[in-house]
Amino acid sequence: MADGLAPGMLVEEFPGRETPLEIFPDGATAFIGAARRGPLDTAIAVDSHAAYERIFSIAGAESPLDRCVADFFHAGGQRAVVVRVANEARACTIRLPGSEGVLVLEALSPGDSEYLRASVDYDQVAPSDTFTFNLVLQRLRAPASERVVEQEIYPRVSVQPGAERYVADVLLESRLVRARLPTPPTRPRPTVSTAPGYPVSWAVAGDDGADGRAVTDYDLVGSSARGTGLFALDGAGPLDFVCLPPAPDGREPGPALLLAALRYCRRRHAMLLLEALPGANDADQALAWLHGLNIAGENVAAVFPRLAGQGKARERSALGAVAGALTRTTTDEEPALGSGFRPTHELPAAQQQRLLAAGLNLIRRGPGGRVVVAGGRTLAAADCRVPAWRSLAARRLGLMIERTVLHGTRWVVFEPAGSDLVARLRTQLGTWFESLRFAGRLAGDPGEAWFVDVDDVAGPDRRSRVEFTFGFAPRRPRDFVIYRVVQGLDGGRLAQVSAERWAIARPRCQAPPPGALSPGTREAG
Hints:
Helix content: 10-25%
Number of strands: 22
CATH architecture of the largest domain: 3-Layer(aba) Sandwich
Oligomer: single chain
Number of domains: 3
Number of helices: 11
């Protein structure tokens, strides 16, 4: 029987001692939307379009989410995290009758497109054993098809709750079904004939599955308490971008969803990627959309126009392709989308300049006729107090540093206090910042590109709490962006502080020059 976690206990592993921090840690691009199949409200990592298709898509039907993920990998993306949401979707069931009751298997993925079937036999099972049987599960590409997409074989499972291979426990490992409880007292009848030459027969899932109603913005936002919608990404690891593809009926994300997504991205140190509404075809329409968006800040980037569609579709979302291209480079270079992509239309140079000045990134033809993502801008305001955050590359660097330092220094809480701890922390962060500087990500020589200052932790009353400050210069030497980090047993916090505030708080330390400003203290962790 499967072992369960103790109720109310959460175990999370951190390194016992400092470990070298990754120079360019890989993040993922998150896609949240409606798919025809797949687990609900679960963050599934996929590293190829084929892996996505196996889990989420069906033959002959393509959703906007399907197209976005396909474009992401075609444009060079390496790792995506997909969350499928639905509104009142129901799972189909397979019924396996026995002499006393029916074993009901419920599809793990709700919807009417699972196409599951099961077979039961008693091969290599003692005739006196009335509880044990062999189970084979298959998912087909299409109904009444013999093209098997997935198959799972479970030999010698039992309907007895106390058995070592109790069917309900064994199927917790299945990617296709779960056993509905309680299980019947005796095993199901075989579906396979014992007569020679007879074909294998199957119990096919019923038509009780349903896709449910149209997905709403509230379904996409989800619940933090239940870990649904956006909050299903909580355990997905580091994120670079969050994308909200259009709904299957063409509806675009509304204001409440966009605000919730932006807040979530700020908490997760990620970028929200947006695009102009369908049908926008000139600078005036794009700017009208941008001004009416009422969503701005350094954690948002927007693109215009959309991509030309395929087949009868005039246009399609550009989110997947743009995210895939941007994840290939972390610099200000204009990444190419690759073959097969073209914008819905080309804008005159004057209109392009207006949109770039407003902070929109453009999909346009670059040198050599390549289709590129130009601009490299966030939607940070023109008077942003950290001018570097108007650059998408600089902001992505800042987000990577935030999440890497916050997670990578958790070890300090569990180490003995003293000067040795201070030295080890400084060495860990200093080595990492020097690697970033050597790679060209920070500006200036040592002392101009970064600094680390650790509070005294030698006292016996430290109470498992370590505080330190670091700064880095993403654009100009000594033009520091400064963060204050607090690591305690109750978690880690990271806040951005201004150079003046830092100079007051640490008067004996050499403070950055007066022009090195970042916003007033702001919670970022």
